[in-house]
Design a protein that fits this description.
The chain has one domain (about 15-445). About 80% of the residues lie in helices and about 0% in strands. The protein has helices at about 15-45, 50-55, 60-85, 90-125, 130-140, 145-160, 165-190, 195-220, 235-265, 270-280, 280-305, 310-345, 350-365, 370-380, 385-410, 415-420, 420-445. The longest helix has about 35 residues, at about 90-125.
Length: about 450
C-alpha cells in the first residue's frame, strides 16, 4: 500500500504551506508544458518550418480540449478538498469514485469529438494549405490521448485536494522523460515528423495515467480507488458536475475565443504565423506556473471553508494572488531578457525569431495581470461557486475578444493590436470576478467562526 504525501491545509503557518503545496505543482505544470514544447521544438529543429507551422497551428485547438479536462479536474479537487476539510470520509470516497467515472467519460467523449471534427475545425480556422495535412495527422493521433489525460487530471485533482502534490510530479517526470526520448527517436531516427511527436505525446500520457491510477488503487483510505465502489452517486454527481463542468467550459471557452485569434493570425504570411506559433509556447509556460497558485488557492480555501476557518479562507486568497502575480512578473522579465534564446529552441530562422519577439514583448507586459482574474475565479470555486464566474469569463474574456478581433484588430490589422486584446480582456474580467467574489465571501464566509475555532 502506498501512502500519499498529504499534509494539513487547515493548520499551521499559511504562507509556507502554500509555497510547499505549490512548488511540486509548478514543476508538474512546467513538465506538462515541456511535453508540448518538445513536440514543437523537435519538429522545428529537425523536420523544418512546415512541420513547425503544422504542429504549432494546432496549439489552440489542443489546449481547448485539454483545458476542458484540466478545468474538470479542478472541480474534482474542490469537491474532495471540501469533504476532507469537513472530515467526512464517506463523502470523500463517494466523490472520488463518482469523479473517476465522470472524468473517464469526458475523456472518451472528447476523443470522439476531436477525431471526427478535426478536419472541419482546421478548415474553419483557415489553416494554410501547406500546413493542413501535417496538422490533421498530428491532431487525430493526439486526440487518442484524451482518455489518459482525463484520468491523470482526475488523479491529480484527488491527490492535490489532500495536499499531495509530490506524487503527480513524480509520475509526470517519468512520462516526460519518455516523451522527450520518443520525440527524438521518432523524428530523427524514423523521420516521422508530425506523426512521431503526436505518438510520443499519446504514449507518455498513457504512462502518466497508468502510474497515477495504480497509485490511487493502492493508496490509503479515504482516497483509495476501488473497483467495487465504482458507481455514480446521484448527489455527488450533481455536486461535482456543478463545479467541474463550468470550470471545464470556462477553460474551453477561453480557447474557443482564441480560435478567432488564431484565425486572425492566419491572415498574415507564413513567417508571422510560424513566429507566433513559436512565441506562443511561452503562454502555457507562464500560465501553468501561475496556475499552480490558483490550484493552491482553491484547495486551501475549500478545505478551510469545509473546516469553518474564516481567517484562513481569506488569507489563502490574498497570499495565492500575490504569489501568482509575482510568478507571472518574474517569468515575463526572464522572457524579455532571454526571448531570442527561447525562440531559438523552436526555429533557426532569423525572420521567424524576429516575428516571435514581437509577441513576446507585448505579452511580457501582460501576463502578470491575468492573476487577478484567474486567482479570483479559483477563490470563488473554492467556495463552491462556479457558474457565475464562468458567465463572467464568457462575457469579459471571450465575447470581448471576439469583438476586439472584428473591430480594433480589423481597423489596425497589426499583430500588436491583436496581442493587446489579452491585457484588456484580463482587466475587464478580473474586475467583474472580484466584485462577485466579494459578494460570495460576505454571504458564505462572513458568519463562520474565527480561525481559532472550527468544526471538530
Amino acid at each position: 500500500m502506498f501512502r500519499n504525501h498529504q499534509f494539513s491545509l487547515t493548520e499551521g503557518p499559511l504562507l509556507p504551506a502554500i509555497v510547499r503545496f505549490s512548488i511540486p505543482l509548478v514543476l508538474s505544470n512546467l513538465l506538462q508544458v515541456l511535453f508540448n514544447m518538445s513536440d514543437i521544438a523537435v519538429v522545428g529543429r529537425f523536420a523544418g518550418a512546415v512541420a513547425l507551422g503544422a504542429v504549432g497551428s494546432t496549439a489552440t485547438l489542443v489546449t481547448l480540449f485539454t483545458g476542458f479536462l484540466i478545468g474538470m479536474g479542478s472541480g474534482v479537487n474542490v469537491t474532495v478538498a471540501h469533504f476532507l476539510g469537513a472530515k467526512q470520509p464517506k463523502d470523500v470516497r463517494e466523490s472520488v469514485h463518482t469523479s473517476f467515472i465522470i472524468m473517464l467519460a469526458s475523456g472518451l467523449a472528447l476523443f470522439l469529438l476531436g477525431f471526427i471534427f478535426a478536419p472541419s475545425i482546421l478548415t474553419l480556422l483557415d489553416t494554410k494549405e501547406e500546413l493542413y495535412p501535417g496538422a490533421l495527422i498530428y491532431l487525430r493521433i493526439y486526440f487518442f490521448g484524451m482518455p489518459a489525460l482525463a484520468i491523470f487530471n482526475f488523479g491529480n485533482g484527488v491527490l492535490s485536494a489532500s495536499g499531495d502534490t509530490r506524487h503527480p510530479l513524480m509520475f509526470l517526470s517519468t512520462a516526460g522523460a519518455l516523451n522527450v526520448a520518443l520525440n527524438l527517436l521518432f523524428v530523427i531516427a524514423f523521420h516521422l515528423a508530425e506523426t512521431g511527436v503526436a505518438l510520443a505525446s499519446v504514449i507518455s500520457q498513457y504512462i502518466s495515467a497508468i502510474l497515477i491510477l495504480v497509485f490511487l488503487v493502492r493508496c490509503d483510505d479515504p482516497l483509495r480507488l476501488r473497483l467495487s465502489e465504482l458507481k455514480l452517486s446521484p448527489r455527488k454527481c450533481i455536486q461535482i458536475l456543478g463545479i467541474s463542468v463550468p470550470a471545464g467550459l470556462q477553460n474551453a471557452i477561453f480557447y474557443i475565443a482564441n480560435l478567432f485569434i488564431q484565425g486572425a493570425v492566419n491572415t498574415f504570411d507564413a513567417v508571422m504565423v510560424e513566429g507566433n506559433s513559436a512565441a506562443a509556447n511561452a503562454d502555457p509556460l507562464v500560465y501553468d506556473v501561475m496556475a499552480a497558485f490558483y490550484t493552491a488557492c482553491a484547495s486551501f480555501m475549500s478545505q478551510n471553508f469545509g473546516a469553518g476557518k474564516k481567517k484562513r479562507v481569506r488569507d489563502s486568497y490574498l497570499l495565492s494572488l500575490a504569489l501568482s502575480f509575482a510568478a507571472g512578473a518574474l517569468l515575463s522579465v526572464l522572457l524579455l531578457i532571454f526571448g531570442r534564446e527561447f525562440l531559438s529552441l523552436f526555429t533557426a530562422d532569423a525572420e521567424v525569431v524576429a516575428a516571435g519577439m514581437l509577441r513576446l514583448r507585448v505579452m511580457a507586459g501582460s501576463y502578470a495581470f491575468s492573476a487577478l482574474m484567474d486567482c479570483t475565479i479559483a477563490a470563488s470555486r473554492g467556495l463552491g461557486k462556479s457558474f457565475v464566474p464562468t458567465v463572467a469569463v464568457i462575457m469579459g474574456s471571450c465575447v470581448f475578444r471576439v469583438i476586439w478581433v472584428f473591430t480594433v484588430f480589423a481597423h489596425f490589422h497589426t499583430m500588436t493590436s491583436l496581442y493587446l486584446l489579452y491585457i484588456f480582456s484580463w482587466a475587464i474580467t478580473g474586475i467583474a470576478e472580484l466584485a462577485y467574489f466579494l459578494v460570495c465571501y460576505r454571504q458564505q464566509v462572513g458568519q463562520l467562526a474565527d480561525d481559532t475555532q472550527g468544526r471538530a
